[in-house]
Amino acid sequence: MDAAKDAGQPNPAAETPEAVAAEHQPAPNAPQFTREEDLHAYHQMLLIRRFEEKAGQLYGMGLIGGFCHLYIGQEAVVIGMQMASVDGDQVITGYRDHGHMLACGMDPKGVMAELTGRRGGYSRGKGGSMHMFSREKQFFGGHGIVGAQVSLGTGLGFADAYRKNGKVSLTYMGDGAANQGQVYESFNMAQLWKLPVVYVIENNRYAMGTSVARASAQTDFSRRGISFGIPGEQVDGMDVRTVREAAGRAIAHARTGEGPYILEMQTYRYRGHSMSDPAKYRTKDEVSKMRDEHDPIEMVRKRLIELHGVAEAELKATDAKVRETVNDAAEFATHDPEPDPSELWTDILLE
User: Can you list the domains of the chain with their CATH numbers?
Assistant: First the structure.
């Protein structure tokens, strides 16, 4: 079978848009957030959404080059995880990483400037979208090789166990990366040594253009650690409340010396795999139906209005403030100088 040609065809396993949306089952008894928690989640997820929309706009204008993978639709996963973590816990992920950086508290200006290849970027303009790092915020990348970050995240957990510092490594991967061989080597080592690692599998239904059903013999990713004795659970990754609740259990398990834990976050990306992907393998109706019925930000917005009595004007003010932050980041990222050619050797050769 021509894999490239096949990846561009509609997915027969996806059936109809209605079936895809119905397949995503919200948790029946989701825990409630306080007003302050919902406001925090709304602001943080909205920051990621508006940032990614602006990044897509700059990419279309030719101001961002190379690969660019947007996180739109998946915001509840990383925000829920961060709400359950503590300062010092490490985060490492693959190439769909902008949202994770912002959730860790990295400066939007520095992130956007790296996307445009400017001197003020987190990698001084040399890393681009997929390769950023902040020791201060305990963010360890941003990795362009599928699944490569999983063994590194396991190594972070090893360092935590060795130092007995009480920290946990939050190691993210996609459903496609979950089929990589090094993932299972990492699972074995993490369970053998009871390393404090939470493996977060962001199942957004498609590995590039290939649906989970066509690429994975075991589509329940939470069970991938059974042979090693690693517990896991499936989570509604579109609801920040269920994410935080599950994250709390998983992180507590890892932090108390019980070893690794697997969380399969059932989520959905609204955009293509990358900015160069027209996403012809799914219908527009499928995306629209998922967005209409399961959007993580709209879910919180409705709760704020209906449950917490927050005025629409206050939410609009929050959106305006977020847009201002993102516009300031874009302004900085398009006017900051490009790196000096001498930077080519920085961090490459040791004098």
Answer: 33-335 (3.40.50.970)
